[in-house]
Specification:
Length: 303
């Protein structure tokens, strides 16, 4: 990974080349999209907005042309690329200008919430929009399988997914943006400031007001009905992902000063592979951090 980061930072041409290749690879391998977005963020973090913009504008026609030849649609390829690159580009600018990972995460969270609110403003019924699009994808499968498929269960699943798809897409987009940003920041630290990434990440936090706001929205989801509850639930999802990231920061900070911290940290990540609900426990750690101050309870004791 350090070799890749070093190649990207050799010059503008190398960054444009890697961004184009990784973006095209993401059409086949979704994980490559994280590296592609990180390729936008790295020169932006190191050299500023102008350098990041040159890389984006240089790679865009290359990817669009490749999309025309391989997918038959340059506009679709270009739109996908901009949707992948621009949120990370903007968040990287915020991180460079403020030198605060917490502010950058808050900015990315704001983008996620704007996505949810904007979709509800733009669409009269978001659930119907997602349901119709999902039906277009699922219906051919149902027709091919015939009587082997329980259509009632499928319809119930589709209805539930459609109801909360807006928030799920916003949460997934937030995870993608922040993952790419953290990869780029890690690359930058490895190249120019060894050890700096861990020190920065373990101090990550969110303003205390986010926690009560989240609890109020969660309460509205559980106590109100109809569209208000659904709208609140969709807003809750991206905020929950931000708290998960803060929870990981807290765990890394605490484990870094424990004698067997690496063992416990490895156990947490292995447990997540088999026990997905552990993510909620990590989110609770991030949610309660403004009140319980988990890091000062452990870190000063051994530092």
């Amino acid at each position: 990974m350090n070799a890749l980061a070093g190649f990207i930072m050799r010059g503008r041409s190398q960054a444009i080349l890697m961004l184009s290749l990784l973006t095209m690879l993401s059409w086949l391998l979704s994980l490559a999209s994280l590296l592609a977005a990180a390729t936008v963020a790295l020169p932006t973090l190191r050299r500023g907005c102008k350098e990041g913009a040159f890389v984006v504008l240089g790679a865009l026609p290359v990817v669009a042309l490749a999309g025309q030849f391989t997918l038959g649609n340059a506009l679709q390829a270009g739109s996908y690329s901009l949707a992948l690159w621009l949120p990370v580009f903007g968040t990287a600018i915020v991180l460079r200008e403020t030198a605060s990972l917490s502010v950058a995460v808050l900015f990315a969270l704001g983008l996620g919430l704007i996505l949810v609110i904007g979709f509800y403003v733009w669409m009269d019924d978001p659930a119907t929009f997602w349901g119709d699009n999902l039906q277009t994808v699922i219906q051919p499968v149902i027709e091919r399988r015939g009587g082997e498929v329980d259509t009632q269960i499928i319809n119930q699943t589709m209805q539930m997914f459609s109801t909360y798809a807006t928030g799920a897409v916003a949460a997934g987009s937030l995870v993608t943006v922040l993952s790419s940003l953290l990869i780029a920041r890690w690359w930058q630290a490895n190249l120019y400031n060894p050890g700096g990434f861990r020190a920065e990440f373990t101090q990550l936090s969110l303003p205390w007001i986010i926690s009560p706001a989240f609890l109020l929205m969660a309460l509205a989801t559980g106590t109100t009905g109809g569209g208000t509850a659904v709208f609140s639930a969709n807003l809750v999802m991206p905020i929950l992902m931000a708290f998960v990231l803060v929870g990981f920061a807290v765990l890394h900070a605490v484990c870094s000063v424990l004698p067997s911290g690496r063992f416990w940290l490895a156990g947490i990540y292995v447990g997540l592979m088999f026990l997905a609900p552990m993510v909620l426990l990590i989110a609770v750690i991030g949610l309660t951090d403004p009140w319980f101050h988990w890091r000062p309870r452990f870190v000063p004791r051994r530092s």
